[in-house]
Amino acid sequence: MYKKIVLLLVFLVAISIQGRSQSLARRVTEAKREVMIASVEFLIGDSSSGKPIKEKECKSCDSYASIKKFAAVNSVERSGQLIDKWISWKIDTVDEAKAKTDLFNFVSKIDSSITSGVHSNRKQLSEYHAYNEKISGIEIMPPVTPTNSSTEISTVNNLKNDFQADAETPSKSGSWFYSANMLYGALGVIVLLLAFILFRNNNDQKKGGKLLKDLKRIREERDQLRHEIENLRNALNEVKALREEDKFELDKLKEELSLAALKQKAAVEEVASNTVVWDKPEAPQKIQETFYSRYADLVDGFSASELLTKEGNDTVFEITILSPNKASFKVSSNPAAQKYALSNADYFLEPTCHYDTLPSGTIINESPGSLTLIGGKWEIKEQAKISFR
């Protein structure tokens, strides 16, 4: 009988939990639908849209599909996408406290989705205050507890029948009943003790088996670690032996190189002592050629064919040939040429020279620029550095 009672209690608790979860999901859906209906009605009543209103209230909106249909009939812009987005915003259906918080956030998000950004002017409409109060007042309704339930009635009847069956069992005598109860009580205590001992023994066996497995695993890991340590020790010994061998070979190689260097030095000295030294001809003097140019006619260089051999009052640059393909250049020290250059410094000096102050006065050459001959063009590789005084 007690087993039946326990099973019935467990069954009732399970039914209660399931019913409560289903009830919360249904109440959340109703609250969510009310908020969406109120929001669609507000959009339809927006007088700024200028669209004809066919129906201000949705009296038959008992599902999301009917809300979509109601919005479409009244020409609410992008109503299908908007309502689908609202439907996708989830509200908890397990924890009632969290469901209330989610509903509050749901209301705020819907309000923001239709009255923010380009639609922020809707908050100035006369209908907005009533709409805001309406959706803010929508709550998840408390669950309604049914007074008569077929499940509860059948459960009570089953319990009643079990108790009546026990009460109607006849007894032969009071003493027999008392002794039988004592016997059953003692047997019950013994059974409970045996069950407890078996339970503890079973747990101890499980724990012992787990401990044996853990001990076996630890021993296996220990043996594996020992094997790995031994392998590492052998590898270390091999590395040490190789290092000693390499050191010996390196010392031997150094000794051989030293002997070879001494032999080579002796051979060179012997050859030098037997060599007749002749007078060496003097190296030809390097002849530097100087040319002149009025400006860098190629922006980043000078045309080789346009260089002048004579200096004039308008030859701003002096170019010195250092080798067949290398040359240096600087600003002419001729006062007339410098004055000519300063008359349009951006044109004459900006592409060819580097300076940090405004061009004026006398041009001082700090360091010459460098040129490289590429085809028929002396290309500027480094600008000349100048200053002004």
Structure overview:
The protein has 389 residues and is of the alpha+beta class. Among the domains are: 2-136, no CATH class; 289-388, no CATH class. It has 9 helices and 9 strands. A 6-stranded antiparallel sheet has the order 1-3-4-7-8-2, with no helix packed on it. A 3-stranded mixed sheet has the order 5-9-6, with no helix packed on it. Helix 1 (2-44) runs parallel beside helix 4 and helix 1 runs antiparallel to helix 5 (126-136). The longest helix is centred in the middle third of the chain and has 100 residues, at 174-273. The radius of gyration is 53 Å and the shape is flat. The chain crosses the membrane at residues 176-199. Keywords: Coiled coil, Membrane, Transmembrane, Transmembrane helix. Residues 215-270 form a coiled coil.
List keywords for this structure.
389 residues, six-stranded antiparallel beta sheet, membrane, alpha+beta
Give the overall shape, derived from the CA principal axes.
flat
Oligomeric category: single chain
Query: What's the end-to-end separation, in Å?
Result: 118 Å
Roughly what percent helix? 55-70%
Spans where pLDDT lies below 50 across 5 or more residues: 8-14, 147-156, 158-178
Within the largest sheet, what's the order of strands?
Answer: 1-3-4-7-8-2
Strand content: 5-15%
Order of helices and strands: HHHHHHHEEEEHHEEEEE
**Rounded mean pLDDT score:** 80
Structural class: alpha+beta
Number of helices: 9
The major pleated sheet works out as: 6 strands, antiparallel
How many strand units?
Answer: 9
C-alpha Rg (nearest Å): 53 Å
Coiled coil: 215-270
Keywords: Coiled coil, Membrane, Transmembrane, Transmembrane helix
Transmembrane segments: 176-199
